[in-house]
UniProtKB/TrEMBL annotation:
One of its GO terms (molecular function) is sigma factor activity. GO terms for biological process: DNA-templated transcription initiation. This is RNA polymerase sigma factor. InterPro entries: RNA_pol_sigma-70-like, RNA_pol_sigma-70_dom, RNA_pol_sigma70_ECF_CS, RNA_pol_sigma70_r2, RNA_pol_sigma70_r4, RNA_pol_sigma_r2, RNA_pol_sigma_r3/r4-like, WH-like_DNA-bd_sf. It holds the Pfam family Sigma70_r4. Belongs to the sigma-70 factor family. ECF subfamily. Residues 35-96, 133-181 form the RNA polymerase sigma-70 region domain. Keywords: DNA-binding, Sigma factor, Transcription, Transcription regulation.
Length: 186
């Protein structure tokens, strides 16, 4: 008996099916990814109505380009997130030309919303080791490291959210990373 496909494999198969013109596969891809892709669009644009409008453009692009998706070259969620990010930045540029928004360069300061490092390690032995070593850290170090490296948050954002000085956050993360490195090398 074979193991069921991973979420990544399932999404990749559905994208390939979209590329073959299967409409129900597009619905599956939408159901599996729309929340994440809307989050990317919303984070870049800052306006829900506009983000939803861009999301519709994203799935039109997916329908038209899915035949070019190659699961051997890219993770399906990375491929989709790139389309969403590019469409949202394009919309930001259009909006910027009207002079009623932040410059497009503001999008570059946003954390990358591609799948986080931990989810890319899922199912691998490294993920088990990493989780075990993270579990050995104190709660504050573990939470800050996970938020920064796996959640894409900046140190400045973490300092504001935790009402801590920026230097304190950096020190906690640095010490935590040193302990994590020692655990992983052991």
């Amino acid at each position: 008996m074979t193991a069921p496909p991973s979420a990544r494999e399932h999404l990749a198969r559905r994208l390939v099916a979209v590329g073959e013109g299967e409409r129900t596969a597009l619905r599956d891809v939408y159901d599996l990814t729309s929340a994440k892709l809307l989050g990317i669009c919303l984070r870049i644009l800052g306006d829900r109505d506009e983000a939803e409008d861009v999301l519709q453009d994203v799935y039109i692009a997916v329908w038209n380009k899915a035949d070019r998706f190659d699961p051997a070259r890219a993770s399906p969620i990375t491929w989709l997130a790139t389309i969403a990010r590019n469409r949202a930045i394009d919309r930001l540029r259009q909006r910027g030309s009207r002079g009623d928004s932040a410059p497009v360069e503001a999008a570059e300061a946003l954390p990358d919303e591609a799948p986080d490092a931990l989810s890319l390690l899922e199912g691998r032995q490294e993920a088990v080791r990493l989780r075990g070593c993270l579990g050995e850290l104190d709660v504050r170090s573990r939470d800050l490291i996970a938020s920064a490296f796996f959640g894409g948050r900046t140190y400045d954002d973490l300092a504001r959210a935790g009402a801590m000085p920026l230097g304190t956050v950096k020190s906690i993360v640095r010490r935590g990373l040193q302990r994590l490195k020692g655990c992983l090398e052991a």
